[in-house]
Design goal:
Length: about 190
């Protein structure tokens, strides 16, 4: 994205993500991945129970803290959450980028400016800030979906749409994942 006058225009530059900034350095390979999807209810105060498996991974990393921020995935709004240790590594990597890089400015304006520290309470819940709940349209039923280094939090209706869209794409093109070689990746791990 760039600016012409007062307009924001697409310059064809992509915004770096946590995964892209960590992947090229092999960072986070020691961290076990989050797995699965889970539905939970957001309470009237904006608190949500973190799935037990996710909570265990977070606590195993030595902290009860998450960084949660807004995100767009497959054209839909959701939240992205990372254990504090993963987020700190991401911050170290982006601090090495030129502060004049237009992609970094967009990342700061969109992604970093709304990031919030959310700590697990004794019941395994976090309090999601109002600005993040509003951004992702979180009202009551929420779906958690796994990522390799973190997880996403969705309005359950939006998640159903995103999943169905991905499933349709795979049904239309069964070779969609052929370039990833999932079988090869699985067999390499056992070697």
């Amino acid at each position: 994205m760039g600016v012409e006058g007062n307009r924001v225009v697409d310059t064809g530059q992509s915004i770096p993500t946590v995964d892209s900034l960590l992947a090229d350095q092999g960072v986070g390979k020691e961290q076990p991945p989050f797995r699965g999807s889970f539905s939970h209810q957001l309470d009237s105060k904006g608190r949500i129970n973190i799935p037990v498996g996710y909570r265990t991974l977070i606590e195993e990393m030595g902290s009860a803290d998450l960084v949660v921020t807004n995100y767009i995935c497959d054209g839909s709004r959701c939240l992205e959450a990372f254990p504090l240790a993963t987020w700190k590594t991401f911050e170290k990597r982006i601090s090495k980028l030129s502060r004049f890089d237009a992609r970094l400015k967009t990342l700061e304006n969109y992604y970093l400016s709304r990031a919030s520290m959310c700590s697990l309470d004794s019941s395994g819940r976090i309090l999601l800030p109002v600005h993040l709940r509003d951004y992702a349209g979180l009202k009551s039923e929420v779906t958690f979906t796994s990522g390799l280094r973190g997880f996403r939090v969705w309005n359950s209706t939006v998640w159903t749409h995103v999943f169905e869209k991905a499933e349709s794409a795979l049904l239309e093109n069964p070779d969609l994942f052929s370039g990833i070689d999932l079988a090869g990746l699985i067999s390499e791990e056992g070697s």
